[in-house]
């Protein structure tokens, strides 16, 4: 058994594809219409269709996404450059801050209010 990745539900797949590709800078690997896979394994899925597939019921337009109980984590080799590029285009949670464990990160929301953290790489 091995963990692969979480798949956030999104309301508007085209908007989210644009956000993750053009704002965050992820490279598209495959676009299946309602499911998009980026290089590195991160993926997004249109929520209406995934709800139908997984739970066999139609999704309500009132479905809540981005409940502040999940953080999508990415790393960037130049955290300051990433912040300068991304911050003007997003709803920022906070600017670059050093965490208690020594890593510098910043956090913001995607279009569905999923919280995203971009951190500098840490030696493991």
Q: What does this molecule look like?
A:
The protein is of the alpha/beta class. It has 2 domains: 1-60, Roll (2,3-Dihydroxybiphenyl 1,2-Dioxygenase, domain 1), CATH 3.10.180; 66-124, 2,3-Dihydroxybiphenyl 1,2-Dioxygenase, domain 1, CATH 3.10.180.10. It has helices at 13-23, 47-55, 79-86, and strands spanning 9-10, 28-31, 35-38, 43-46, 71-75, 91-98, 104-109, 115-119. The strands form 2 sheets. A 4-stranded mixed β-sheet has the order 1-4-3-2. The protein has a 4-stranded mixed β-sheet with strand order 5-8-7-6, covered by helices on one side. The radius of gyration is 15 Å and the shape is globular. The mean pLDDT is 93.
- Rg, alpha carbons: 15 Å
Give the CATH superfamily of the largest domain: 2,3-Dihydroxybiphenyl 1,2-Dioxygenase, domain 1
The CATH class of the largest domain, by name, is Alpha Beta
Taken in chain order, the helices and strands follow as: EHEEEHEHEEE
| Strand segment tally | 8
The parts where pLDDT drops under 50 for at least 5 residues are none
Strand content: 25-35%
